[in-house]
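User: Hey, quick favor. My workstation is busy. Could you predict this chain's structure for me?
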Amino acid sequence: MKTPLTTALLGATILAGAAQADEVIFAHGANPGNPRYVAAEKWGELFSECTGGAHTVNVAPSATLGDDAEMLTSASAGIIQVSANSQGAMSQIVPEIGLLGLPFLFSDLPSAWAVLDGEVGELLDQRANNAGLKIVGFWDNGIRNITHLTKNVPTPGDLKGMKIRTPPSQTTVDIFEALGAAPAPLAWSELPTALESGVFDGQENPLVNIYSAKLHEITPYVTMTGHKYETTPVVVGLAWWSGLDEATQSCVVEATAEAGKMQRQMVTDSDADLRPKMEAEGAIFAEADKAAYQAATATVYEKYAQDYPELVAVLRKAAGLE
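Assistant: No problem, here it is.
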């Protein structure tokens, strides 16, 4: 397996016009040390082994082939084959996937996985097919917390007027508007510079993303809000998928599931493991008044229940909220 993939190599692949080459390009936006990065490397090993070496995998990390939205476009166009992507970017194509980020929907990660690995995941895949994509599995992007340049935010009132970066997810924007903040979406790759320059007061992510991107060095105040969940959909181009034989399709699914077990476990372990590390490096933690946060974001459910009544009801029931 060759990594990272250079832009020049991608250009050569495009010029060769190979719609389904032996070489598979797996692109993602995570940096070294992030569970998504580690799992993508493992995916390449597993897939090559499963296909008996008939396919090699070039992993392009750290958004070297564009941000998440660009990677989705490239996958649907056949420029790349696979991407471990983001819930926010996918929600621009499959709005229903954004509902996974309803506030305080999942109390823990296994609850989210149980929903994604069942009929809800199948429904989201069907919607993705309409955009030329196939979801072959769901990795994890954690339950999210808020970091700030200068203060902790234990109550919703502490967020009033806060300029906060969100992923390109309308659900997340709605949550922070309900909390009285001033949210705005921005690509993940541009976030550190935007925080350093003061464009934003803070941002929200799981601890594992905060730590691997060293965001706690810029925004050292970390409030454990646990306000929403996000998944990492692993997607392939539907045209590429349709051109594979059944055995190779099975290898794609098996590699995604096996690497996903490791990735999910890494995310699960990260909150307990990373907090003391981050505190030792100067991060200042605070617990949130979750009851107050939940009350302040209840209107978000009302909005999406009007637009997607059946799916919101299914999600609430599956998550044990009713």
